[in-house]
Predict the 3D structure of the following.
Amino acid sequence: MTPTEPRPDPAPVEELEKRAAEVLAAVPDYVWDGRQPPVPIEEIADSCFGLLVREVEDMSAAPGAPQVGPGQSISGLLLASRGEIWVNAGEAREWPPRKRFTIAHELGHWILHRTGQQALFCRHGSVEESDRPELPPAEVEANAFAAALLMPADLVRAHHRACSGDLEQLCLIFDSSERAMKRRLASVN
Ligand SMILES: [Zn+2]
C-alpha cells in the first residue's frame, strides 16, 4: 500500500461488540454460565472453536515467522492451518492477564479475518489493551473484539456499580489488566 492510498477504516465498534456478544451467547453452559466473570477465554477458544492454545518460549520457531528487530517481539499468533493460537510464554509469565487478552485478540482474527490457511503474526505493539489508532485496521478490530469478549459491557457496568468503581477489584473480577479495564470503562460508561 502506498502512503497516499487511504487506509480502510476498521469496522464500527458496534459491529465488533455484536460479534463478541454472539460468540458469548453461543457458549454452552458447561463452558461458562454467561454471568460470572472472568470469561474463560482459553476454554472458549478450545471448546467452541477447536483452537489449541500453546504458550511458546520462542515465537520465531513458528513456520513463516517474520524477522523481528532488537527490542521487538511477537505477542501472539494464529496458525489457521493447524488451528493453533500461540502466546508468548515470557509475556504470559510476566503479565498473566495479558495472556488472556492475546488469546482473545487471536480469536478475533480467527473469527473476523481468517480467509484461508495463512498464519497471522501479531507484534507486541499490535496486541494493545489501550487505544492505538495508528495500528492497521485488522489489529484495531481484533483489540476491540478482545475487549468486548473479555469485558462484556453489561457485566462491566453491573460490577462497576457493585464495587463502587474500585478499579483494582474490577481487574481481579475480570482477570484483566488495569490498562485494558480503564479503556473498557471509558467505552461502556
Ligand atoms: Zn493481531
